[in-house]
From TrEMBL:
InterPro entries linked: Arrestin, Arrestin-like_C, Arrestin_C-like, Arrestin_N, Ig_E-set
Protein name: Putative arrestin-like
Domain Arrestin C-terminal-like: 84-242
Alphabetic keyword roster: Sensory transduction
Species for this entry: Penaeus vannamei
GO molecular function, one term: G protein-coupled receptor binding
GO biological process, one term: signal transduction
The keyword Transport appears for this protein: no
Similarity comment: Belongs to the arrestin family.
A GO cellular-component term linked to this record: cytoplasm
Amino acid sequence: MTDAQERLIKKLGANAYPISVNLPENAPCSVSLDGGSCTFADRKEERPHKRNSVGFAVRKVQYACPGSSNRQPQTLVSKGFTLSPGRLNLEVTLPQDVYFHGQPIEATLSVNNVSKKTVKNMKAEVVQHVEVTMTNTHFSRVVASLESREGCPITPGCNLTKTFSLNPVASVNKRRFGIALDGQVKDQDANLASSTLVAEGKNVNDALGIIVSYSVRVKLNCGAIAGDLTADLPFKLVHPDPASVKAPLRKTQSADIEVEEFTNLRRGQSIAED
């Protein structure tokens, strides 16, 4: 038993019984697990009174340690045009592979236009990809976007390097249909659902439940006829390791029981996985 359970039993008496919940190691992470219930009865047919039952929500949350990945993602795409010589080249890079909730995501794009077409404007987006394995459903939602004409038009023979700063947060996406969240919509501290992490040597496609991933998508608009050049660059959006960050605590005392209320990092006190 924990110290809190021992104090509660001492306060509530012998009719109080401690319980614990253990999730299997391979249990899927959830956007939100349904509330569970625990009842006690002498016979299995007996219907317990509401005051003799308890319901509580259970979450499993993964987190990553700061500096767990030093990889700098990058991608290079190019596009040729029918009956037009040359190609339009786009390179997108990120300074890191793992981001924590609330961190701005700075994507640097380099455009090399050796075609005969002109780039009219640029757009950068953070896209949330969700796969529901139970129903084999896939969908994507834009959770942050920024469009710019600075440096445009990019005429033939010109180059441009530009950095977009995007900040995907749940507060501006809670009311949108199909957005995956960590927690309930009504929770003030709910975040966008974290990226699904798997143990080393395992494939993320073998995970169960709801699989979440993120990517930065950059589009170069070359007009209605020439179309767009699009680059997608995956990254991970996760919670930081609670052990590496001091959580702000608010303490309240009732008789001989002290309760600590975790704010920003209370989700990280669930099951931890690397």
